[in-house]
């Protein structure tokens, strides 16, 4: 059985897995002597992405850093989940207040109260 990278293990959709496997196959083909251009064309992957992955096999997520450290997010998630488990009614504004208080304690800038930020927090939490 072929071993796959950590990158493939964390993907969710079949399309994501397929793209990652094609990228890995193209990289292996270059190690076997095929040119980067030919491998990219044969496997249908962007040369720049393949080149970047060859330099950095375990890339980190791109974008702005999170406003709260991971431990703080986990603490907030645990609080919200325990409130839900015990039947304490919370709405998005109660939760946002808790998040804002945590950010203030950490000396972070004020969090935007927009619905998009709330949705992103919920989606990034288990």
Essential attributes:
126 residues, mainly alpha, 7 helices, elongated, DNA binding, HTH psq-type domain-containing protein
Topology:
Blueprint: H1 6-9, H2 14-31, H3 36-43, H4 47-55, H5 70-86, H6 92-105, H7 115-124
Helix pairs in contact: 2-3, 2-4, 5-6
Explain this structure to me?
Residues 23-56 form the HTH psq-type domain. Helix content is 63%, strand content 0%. The chain is mostly helical and 126 residues long. It has two domains: 14-55; 70-123, no CATH class. The chain starts with 5 loop residues before the first helix and ends with a helix.
**Based on the structure, what is the oligomeric state of the protein chains?**
single chain
Q: What is the averaged pLDDT score?
A: 78
Structural class: mainly alpha
**Spans where pLDDT lies below 50 across 5 or more residues:** none
Enumerate how many helices there are, as a single number.
7
How many structural domains?
2
Main sheet makeup:
none
Strand content: under 5%
Q: What is the number of E strands?
A: 0
Helical proportion? 55-70%
The best one-word shape is: elongated
Q: Give the termini distance in whole angstroms.
A: 30 Å
Secondary-structure element order, N to C: HHHHHHH
Instruction: Report the C-alpha radius of gyration, rounded.
Output: 21 Å
Main location: nucleus
GO molecular function, one term: DNA binding
Subcellular location: Nucleus
Organism: Ramazzottius varieornatus
Structure summarized in a few sentences:
Pfam families: HTH_psq. Helices cover about 65% and strands about 0% of the residues.
